[in-house]
Each structure stands twice: as structure tokens, then as C-alpha cells.
């Protein structure tokens, strides 16, 4: 079972905080991968918020292919960040780790956000396909104000490998996962958190209904619903589908993945709508065991449980800094000064929501709506 | 002139018992000559007769055998093909001394002779193939233990329900957001098709008329009990033959899917009852084909058309009621779909799901795609070759039709390719529970892509002890002489059947199937929705089947 650490704050902080929290949960991850997604970036990226950042890894050969392709697309490189690699015995380094900031092609500068998002996603997918067979190009995200870092290894050793403790990399929302490989091959694309067009999620657990959910998503006609090297990637895509594509308010994500019983639906004020949602999105119903932590493009962080609460999850913090984690020991490490009695352990009907800026935490209850 | 050998030519035109499918084993030493067996035999295959017999006897302390010739009473099987022993075993059932039983004769040449008068052999039942079907070869192999925790079939909550009705694609839902809440947008005028939440095992179409009054009544009572007491929304299809008038006007109509087929029997009464109905039916099934006899119509033999049946169907008594093989007023699939589905929908104000049933066929995908384009089509029911019937030609039963497993799988995957797998539910039928594995067969079909399954023959066997089996046992449904009283309108026969017991058994069957379904779904970690299309949970020990069904091979 993977270990998850999400921190949201009103101040920029280092991803080392997430990694130290993961270290407290060490028995739960096995070095088969660590993923970091940083949103609302500080440091050298603070002044580049409007520009898309391509995060990934490539070989020497892949680098020249990538450069050529992205130039043909019309993107202009504005800034490049690369981690300072420090040799660590247990980690086999790859050629280039990068986060590159680009300016949009000239003909896209005045386009709508949606058109820009589609361009970025399609470019990322093209790059992924070009480098997938020989792993010459691996790209995780291409989106403004978001950086993704993934590699196989123990989180603490990876932080040393990437010199994260000495880099100026900072953000206000950082998600981290320490992977426990179970059902699938060790593959960088299988590592959480998953990201698509501003939506991100990570989860601890398996997904027993993976096949019908994957079939449903892949048949939506949306080019971004691909990959699925991990059964957990569908959680991100369900979030994207319900919130972005169907334009449902965020809490309906809970109604989609864990729909209520008819007798419970009747009591909801929006019962008629959620009955229709339950029917039309029946294949997206999950059965756990999963706790899902996610964020949306506007910076809201949330945590939900499967309908039986088969996985742990805890949320706690202080005004201005909240953490959403798979284990409470991580909370103790990062925010020891918080009032523990106010920690939230969401149950099967709950959706814990931390708005941007982390000033407060709300619990939305599915029964009450 | 007689031949010199003295052999009478007449014997040449008599059949020996070896040609018959069942040979009666009668034990002289056990028989007390009560006559129960001969009285009860539905086909008069056995008769009492007398024989002259040489008997050796000895009395007294020292053996002193004496021979006497005398007349004894015996039970004899006739060698008349019109009175062949069907193997039903009613004789065994009534014999007080276990002196008689039919034995299957695998070397029989029954079909060589069962065409007297140039008429092909007609019977009821299902395909005479006792081998293991594809459904029974499928195994559930994704068992979670330490990875994704298995659920507990006894402790966790399971919702074994499915949807019957056309489901709107999510991007066409008429919803709008008001103060962060979604509400139905009435101004959009978008038609929202009716959808029922039902139990995924449907009682398949068996008509009033094909079934005896206590059988049909027993099933109907059981269905009402399951819904109202057990809270299991089981629905039952009426078959073609109308609905008893009181039921049409009762609150229980909501538990029934009314069938319309090519004979339109009973629909005069149904249409006239429309203004008096207090509930809508669960659905309307338009029968275009039947898995047991593809390309053939329905037939209710004259002897079964008694007064009650004639009234319900709106026909004279004691005439053969043949439903044509096709709907005579239709000339194309487009027209069939449009005219029939829409007119049936209109009859109930578009509040009732209307769907067609076809027999399993290579052309199922063509029908499917036509339905996928019609926004009023509520489902597609496909009835495979192992389905049962009350009456059909043996050749249709045995040699025509398509197995359900690959048919349902290819239809589901076709819908997946179009992204419509959740919009048009598939109902699978034909051979579910053939070997008694109701829940396992149903679960396998659901995981291949069916939203629900329909079961008929198994229900007759399990609730009313139907003798029928795939060695052509019994299969007398068409003759009206059902020895169990299930498919007869003869009061002397149907008095044997207690409708309360049928209802009780039906409830037991469904409750047991529900437990078994949970036992299958729990280790796979599926509980809040049906595992429709969860094909990664299935395996088979045959590579060709695995490849065809796109599931894994395990051995």
C-alpha cells in the first residue's frame, strides 16, 4: 500500500517536508518509485506562472528529438531547471532530468485557456509516444505552474540524488507518493501522483474495478485518457472528466466514485440530479480499497475514501498549513504544533476540502449533500 | 408363401427396445402389481400385460423341484415410437417398492424413427447437449488476498442491482449548476428515458398458457414476495400470451415485463386495460427471436387452449395458436425498431422501458448498432442456443442458434468501442444454470458484459422439479402432458403442483443465488456496483475460448 503526503500552505515550502513525512512511513513503501508534484511554484518559477512547464526525463537521443519536436510546434524555451544530480549507489541516473518553461506558440498566445490546455496535453502525449518504446523521452506534465518529478528509488535517497535539500525548489502545494509496487511493473508512468490539465491525484490502494473504468474512460473520445500503467491513474482521469469535461462542482466527484444507495439519494436535495449521475456514470463507481488525495486547477486540495473506508487517511494542520496524509505519523513530523484533537479522519461519506491558502478545512458530507 | 426358415417378416417392421432412448428396468421380484406406474405414465410407454410363464418351485425340507406353467402379470414397455419412454421417471416416483425406473440408452436411434407421417419431431425443453457449456468452463480467478483486500460476503454491504432502460450519456444529462448544486434543467426539454433498478437475474419469458395456472401463479407470488418482503427487485417476463386481467389492474404489475411477440396474443386485453392500470409494468419486451428455436415462431398446441387461456389471449378455445416466425407487419430492422419500440413506449407515455429480444446470432451486432442509434431502445436481450422452450421442432432446438458467451462478449466490446457500454444494457439468456450453477453462470455473463441475465428453464427445474434434462429426458412441454403439472392445462395434471410451494422455492432460489453472487464478487472486491465487463476476473482453460472472449487463459 503506497504512502501519501500532500501539504498545502499559504507560504512556499520545500518538497523535503513531504519527503521527511514519507520517511516516517517507511515500512509502507518499497523503493519502487517516488513521485512529486509541485503546484503554485515559488523561487525562480514565481515570475513564470503564466508559462507552461514541461517536466520529464530523457536520454541524449531523446533530448535532441524533444528539442526538434517542440521547436516545430512553435514553443520557445524561456527557462530551464535541472536538478543537481548527486551519485547515490542505489539509484541508476538517467541522462537528463528537466523542468523546462516554454512560451506558447505565437498563434496560441491569445487563445482560451481550454485551447491552450488541449495544445499542452496533445504535445505531451506526442512526446510520450515518441519516447515510449525505448524510454528515450518520459514526460509527466506540461502545464503552467506545475512541476513533476518521478524516479525509482527510496524517497530520502532520491531527495539526496536530486539535491532537493539544497535546491531552491519551493511551492505552496506539494504532493508526494512513496510507491509500494504490487500489481504492476515498475514503470515511471505507474508512479503517482498523476496529473492531467490541472487536475492531480494520488491514492493508496488498489482498484478492483479498474478494467471497466479504464474501458469507459478510454471510450470517451478524449485523447488524454491513455496510459494506465497503474490502476490508480483512472482516479485522476475521473476527477478531470467530472470536473472539467462535465463541469460538475468538485464534491460530485465523491458522488461519481462512491454513489449513494437509492434510499440515501432520496434524502438529498439534489437527489434527482445525483440519481441521473449515478446511472450515467455507473462504470466509474469504484469499490476501493482507496483513499484518494487530489487537487484541482484552482488549488483546492481534498481527500475522499472509498465507500467502505478500507484505507487510512488523516488531515490536520494549523491555519495556513494543512497536510493530507495516509498516516498520522507524517502529520506529527510536519505539523507537530497542531491541535491533534482536531485531526480529521474522513469516513466513508466524507470529503475533506482544504481551500487554496490553507486557511481552513471543511468536511463535506455526502449524505447531507 | 412363408420363407423356409420360418422367420416372420413382420418382425422386420418392429423396433427393438434398443432403438429407444430410455429402456424401462422393471423388477418382477419387487413389483406388487399396484398399477401406479402404468396409470401415471404420461405417454403410456408401459402397460400391464399377462405372460404365460414356466415356474420352478420347491417346497418342504428336501429340494423337490416341480414345474408349473401359469399366467403372471407383468409390466412391459411398448415398442411404439409414438409412445416412447421419455425417461421422465414419474413411474419411479410413484412406485412404492422401487421396482421400476427408466435407464438412458446412449445407443438409441430415436431420431431415425421419430418422424412418422412425415412430420419432424417436436418437443419442449432445451438443446439436447449434456456436455459442459462455455459458461460452465469459465472460472473466477482474480482472488484478492493480500493485495486488494477481499470483501467479506457476510459483513460488507453488497448492492446487487442493475439498470433496465436507456441510460443517457453523461455529457447529455440535462443538468445545470445552481449555487454549487446540480439540478435537472427542465427548460432543456431533454427526454430522460425511464430506467428501472432491478435485480440482475430476471425470470425469463414463460407465458400464461405455456405454463399451468399454479406454476405461473406460484412464480408471480414468489416475485411479489421477493419484492415486498425480501426487498429484492426481481422482475419476471410474462412471455407472449397476455397477463391475467386482475394482475393487469393490480399494484403488482410493476414487477412484470410484458412481452409482445409476433402473434400479439393477449394484447387486446392489455390495451383495453391501459386506462385502468394503477402501475406501469417494469418493461415491455418485444420478442423477435428465441434462443431455443431461432427463426421459428411460437406455438401453443390446441389442447392447452382452455377457457381461461382463450379469454386471456382473446382467441377461441382449443385451436392451435401459432405465432409467426417474424413480425408480419415489418419489413426492415429500422422500421421494426422505430415502429414497435416507439409505439409501445407511447402506449405508456414513454414511462416504460421497451426493448427487443433476439435469438443469439451472428447478426446480433447489426441489431445492436441499430438499437444504439435509437434513443428509445431500452436494452437488447440476447437469448442463446441453450435457452428453453415450450414447443419447437427438434432440429431448431438442437441445431440452430448461437452460444450466448461469445455473442454477448462481442456485443459488449462493440459498445465499448463506441463508448456506449453503459447506455444500452445487454441482457443475456440461454443456458444459465444448465448444470445448476445459476449464480456462477450469471456472474460470468455479467463480467463478460451483460447488465442482467434472464433465466427460464432453471427456474422450472428448481422451483417445480421439472424433469427435463439434456438427454432428451421428458421434454413433453409441447404435448400438454407435463407429469409435474408445470406446462399443462389439464387440471388432473396441474393439480399435482402446489403454487405456494413454487413461490417458496422461488424465494429460496433467489436468496441462495444472492448469497452465491456475493461469494463470487467479494473476493474480487466488487460490491457497490455489478462487475459489468470486469473481464480481468475471468479465466478459462481453453486458449481458443480465452482468445475469442478476450479473457485470460489459466490452466
Describe the structure.
The complex is a heterodimer of chains A (369) and B (555). Chain A is of the alpha+beta class and 369 residues long. Chain A has one domain (3-49, 145-365): 4-Layer Sandwich (Glutamine Phosphoribosylpyrophosphate, subunit 1, domain 1), CATH 3.60.20.10. Chain A contains ten helices and 16 strands. Chain A has helices spanning 16-24, 60-73, 113-132, 155-161, 210-218, 233-245, 252-257, 262-267, 271-280, 328-334, and strands spanning 3-13, 34-41, 52-58, 76-81, 96-103, 137-144, 146-151, 171-178, 194-196, 199-205, 290-295, 301-305, 314-318, 321-325, 350-354, 362-365. In chain A, the strands form three sheets. A six-stranded antiparallel sheet of chain A has the order 7-2-8-1-14-13, covered by helices on one side. In chain A, helix 1 packs across helix 10, helix 2 packs antiparallel against helix 3 and helix 5 packs across helix 6. Chain B has 555 residues and is of the alpha/beta class. Chain B folds into two domains: 16-57 and 65-120, Alpha-Beta Plaits (2-Layer Sandwich); 137-169 and 185-315 and 324-553, TIM Barrel, CATH 3.20.20.70. Chain B has helices at residues 36-40, 90-94, 110-113, 134-137, 213-228, 245-248, 267-273, 307-313, 333-347, 364-373, 394-399, 404-418, 438-448, 457-464, 491-494, 499-521, 543-549; strands at 22-26, 46-57, 66-77, 100-104, 122-125, 139-140, 162-164, 175-178, 181-184, 196-198, 201-203, 236-237, 256-260, 283-287, 299-300, 321-322, 354-359, 380-383, 389-393, 426-429, 452-455, 538-540, 552-553. In chain B, the strands form eight sheets. Chain B has an eight-stranded parallel sheet with strand order 11-21-20-18-17-14-13-12. In chain B, strands 6-22-23 form a three-stranded mixed sheet, with helices on one face. In chain B, strand 17 (354-359), helix 10 (364-373) and strand 18 form a beta-alpha-beta unit. In chain B, helix 5 crosses helix 16 (499-521), helix 10 (364-373) runs parallel beside helix 12 and helix 13 (438-448) packs across helix 16. The termini of chain B are far apart. The A-B interface holds A 182-183, 205-212, 215-216, 219-221, 245-249, 251-252, 258-259, 261-262, 269-270, 272-274, 276-277, 279-283, 285, 287-289, 307-308, 310, 369 and B 144, 147-149, 151, 156-157, 159, 163, 167-171, 173, 175, 177, 180-184, 192, 195, 197, 416-419, 421-422, 524-529, 531-536.
